[in-house]
Amino acid sequence: MASFFPASFENLIDSFASLPGIGRKSAQRLAFYILSLPAEEAEKFAETVLEAKRSVHTCPVCQNLTDGELCPVCSSPSRDRTTVCVVSEPRDVLSIERSREYRGLYHVLHGALSPMNHVGPDDLRIRELLERVAEGEIREIIMATNPDTEGDATAMYISRLLKPFEVKVTRLGFGVPVGSNLEYADDATMLKALEGRREM
């Protein structure tokens, strides 16, 4: 089918459409919006994307995103260093922090086990977690992966790997519906889930 738009504009639409959760119509709206911006604002937008790519990296301790040497949680002296909450994605840290109840550290796996999508243990930051636990300061690991098939499989797999370390392994309790994502949980739901965590 012939395109009504210039190739460069079609490329812009394709770029937006390649983002997760953005359909073709939304991609077109975003592309039209970008074109409507004054040149300096469009340049600023592009530079913001490039700057984030240049400066944001993973924290060497917890694997969360940071633009410093360590992330703000790992560098905070007020956090409980004996408890680590394991999450699938960096955005899950924000969901738990919103509860204002959890005062420990985090470990971000950057995914969940998914044989269907060819995601195995070596594709996740599991080795880094085991290295942290081996240092001996951690007393409890809270498995806060999503309450779906992949999240449960990941939690069970990691809990088996942690058995030799004699560390307490708990799972988020009731409050987060099965099959949902943590990023959609409200503050009260996340608080209940943290309070109701159970040992694995």
Sequence of strands across the biggest β-sheet: 4-3-5-6-7
Number of helices: 8
Oligomer class = single chain
CATH topology of the largest domain: Dna Topoisomerase Vi A Subunit, Chain: A, domain 2
Mean pLDDT: 88
Number of domain modules = 2
| Topology order in helix (H) and strand (E) letters | HHHEEHEHEHEHEHE
- Which strand-content bin applies to the residues? 5-15%
* Strand count: 7
Low-confidence stretches: none
Radius of gyration, whole Å: 20 Å
How widely separated are the two ends?
Answer: 55 Å
How does this model look, in words?
With 200 residues, this protein is of the alpha/beta class. The chain folds into two domains: 7-55, RecR Domain 1 (Helicase, Ruva Protein, domain 3, Orthogonal Bundle), CATH 1.10.8.420; 58-199, Dna Topoisomerase Vi A Subunit, Chain: A, domain 2. The chain has eight helices and seven strands; from the N terminus they run αααββαβαβαβαβαβ. It has a five-stranded mixed β-sheet. A two-stranded antiparallel sheet has the order 1-2.
List the defining traits of the structure above:
42% helix; 5-stranded mixed β-sheet; Dna Topoisomerase Vi A Subunit, Chain: A, domain 2; 8 helices; Helicase, Ruva Protein, domain 3; alpha/beta; 14% strand; two-stranded antiparallel ribbon; 2 domains; 200 residues
